[in-house]
Design goal:
The chain is of the alpha/beta class and 545 residues long. It has 21 helices and 15 strands. The chain folds into 2 domains: 72 residues, no CATH class; 381 residues, Alpha-Beta Barrel (TIM Barrel). The strands form 4 sheets. The protein has an 8-stranded parallel beta sheet with strand order 4-13-12-11-10-7-6-5. A 3-stranded antiparallel beta sheet has the order 1-14-15. It has a two-stranded antiparallel ribbon with strand order 2-3. Strand 12, helix 15 and strand 13 form a beta-alpha-beta unit. Helix 6 crosses helix 18, helix 7 packs across helix 18 and helix 15 packs across helix 18. It is globular, with a radius of gyration of 28 Å. The protein starts with a helix and ends in an 8-residue tail after the last helix. This is Glutamate synthase (Ferredoxin).
């Protein structure tokens, strides 16, 4: 009996609510008609009241009869406030809710230090850290009681193995892969001019080699992805002749084959047809106005051995320039298979860029961004150990890419096995990005990730290129200052015990204790127990997970 009464009461409430909603819209309609009548007979000033009332009444009527949004059917007119608040939620969160140190993907402290360094202002913090230094996962670098002076010139890392005839000296921090198409022309121009001013490298991303990459003469790492944009045949295959012709350009210092990307490993990218204008179509060798889909796999290889051979072919076509590949690590066994293929073929890349799962992208499925791929710390250490264990580490330089924005980030990645670092989103901050997270909509408010000329004009190349140069210079100087406080003058002197992590409220361990570090050639002689199964199963002729 009580249940029946409950159902009847609920039904009565629903009916009463429906009556109220219809009554409210009816009152709005009557008021608007009354205001129109007054405007017609009492004077034109009544239109000031009549027009808004008419709009509200029309909106209410439409909300009641539409079938797409339940909220609007139940709450005509007022329901639009929900959509308005939802639209501005990221801005409200960023400006009024989040604390200085807990924003995502980058917190306010990190964004501020990038902005300040880009502008050339002091990046100082009063009153001490806001971070919880006793929280699990807190990391600290070990300073020395006998600090040293940093060297006068920032260090450079020579990229070029035994088969490379045109080695390149890489900076500690460089512009990571971001394509023309994903970024505006002005953003590409600013990044490249900044690289030219500062003497560091600019990775083109997989979107092809555009005139914006070449105009200011900055050093380029030309990245080739699964779509082979800028060096593809009409059916989407790799065009050797076009690749060789473009790789010969003086500005191209290195060439890189992209296997996977941190934010979306295992899938290809999509550039919507609306962004594929005539210029982008020409740069990428694709039809204008049609969505460009990068396949998740490469056509040029299907086994580790074929991958290694293709790297050798790319280097030959590029005239001996440094050649390597980029990946977000997934299977350790598969990477060990690539190492076995290198040993069997006697061929090694000149560099490998390790991207972390925390890396950024213009657009990716949420499931991939949140749940696929290994974070940079574990990925970088695994690749370093695999190369060391197979005796190949001294022939291959390692780059680290994934949320590198400060000097401390650089030093941590060097401790974990990298030789140099790349930054993408931090460089975007330097050219004006405000983390609006509208990259995929073509409506970037600062002109960084858009092909809309009206929005892109907001980004002034002459000003933003100086900010890119200043940010890179100040961040590398910060890394050198940190190393000097650790008693270290050069990156090669850093060791795993110099970085520590709190693992619980009562224990702090160094990276030398947290991770195993393989000795040179150890996998070839006596693999450690936790590596033995993967090493035995790794097949240079198959990608076996």
């Amino acid at each position: 009996m009580i249940a029946v009464l409950g159902v009847r009461s609920a039904g009565a409430a629903v009916s009463f609510g429906s009556v109220l909603r219809f009554a409210a819209v009816a009152v709005l309609s009557l008021l608007s008609l009354g205001a129109v009548a007054l405007a017609l007979f009492a004077g034109p000033w009544w239109w000031v009241l009549a027009v808004p009332l008419l709009l509200l009444a029309g909106t209410g009527c439409r909300d009641l009869v539409q079938r797409k949004h339940s909220v609007l059917r139940n709450y005509p007119v007022l329901g639009h406030l929900r959509f308005l608040l939802e639209a501005v939620r990221p801005e409200l969160q960023q400006y009024f809710v989040e604390r200085n140190f807990d924003g995502r993907p980058y917190d306010r402290d990190i964004r501020s230090i990038v902005y300040e360094r880009a502008k050339g202002t002091d990046a100082e913090e009063p009153f001490g850290t806001e971070r919880d230094v006793y929280a699990d996962g807190y990391e600290s670098l070990v300073h020395s009681m006998a600090p040293v002076s940093p060297p006068d010139d920032p260090p450079k890392i020579r990229i070029g193995g035994p088969d490379c005839t045109k080695p390149y000296d890489m900076a500690l921090l460089n512009v990571s892969a971001m394509s023309f198409g994903s970024l505006s022309a002005n953003a590409i121009l600013a990044l490249n001019k900044g690289a030219a001013l500062g003497g560091f490298a600019h990775d083109t991303g997989e979107g092809g080699l555009s005139e914006y990459h070449l105009r200011h003469g900055g050093d380029l790492v030309w990245e080739i992805g699964t779509g082979y944009f800028g060096c593809r045949t009409s059916d989407g295959d790799f065009d050797k002749a076009e690749f060789a012709d473009k790789a010969a350009h003086d500005a191209v210092k290195c060439v890189s084959l992209k296997l996977s990307q941190g934010a979306k490993p295992g899938i290809g990218g999509v550039l919507p047809g609306g962004k594929v204008n005539a210029e982008i179509a020409r740069v990428r060798d694709v039809p204008q106005g049609k969505s460009v889909i990068s396949p998740p796999y490469h056509r040029v290889f299907s086994t580790p051995r074929e991958l290694v051979r293709f790297i050798a072919s790319m280097r030959e076509l590029a005239g001996g320039k440094p050649t390597g590949f980029k990946l977000c690590l997934g299977s350790r066994r598969q990477f060990l298979a690539v190492c076995k293929a290198m040993l069997a073929e006697g061929v090694t890349p000149d560099f490998i860029i390790v991207d972390g799962a925390e890396g950024g992208t213009g657009a990716a499925p949420l499931e991939f961004a949140d749940h696929i791929g290994i974070p940079l710390t574990e990925g970088l250490i695994t690749v370093h150990n695999a190369l060391a264990g197979t005796g190949l580490r001294d022939r291959i330089k390692l780059g680290a890419s994934g949320k590198v924005a400060t000097g401390a980030d650089i030093v941590k990645r060097l401790v974990q096995g990298a030789d140099y670092t790349n930054a993408a989103r931090a460089m975007m901050f330097a050219v004006g990005c405000i983390q609006a997270q509208r990259c995929h909509t073509n409506r970037c408010p600062t002109g960084v990730t858009t092909q809309d000329p009206r929005r892109a004009r907001a980004l002034v190349v002459e000003d933003k290129s100086l900010r890119v140069e200043r940010f890179q210079r100040a961040t590398v100087a910060g890394a050198q200052q940190i190393m000097a406080s650790m008693g270290v003058r050069f990156p090669a002197e850093l060791r795993p015990h110099m970085l520590r992590r709190r693992v619980d409220p009562h224990q702090v361990l160094s990276y030398a204790e947290l991770y195993d570090w393989l000795a040179p050639g150890q996998l070839l002689s006596e693999p450690p127990r936790d590596w033995a199964d993967d090493w035995a199963a790794a097949d240079p002729d198959r990608f076996t997970v």
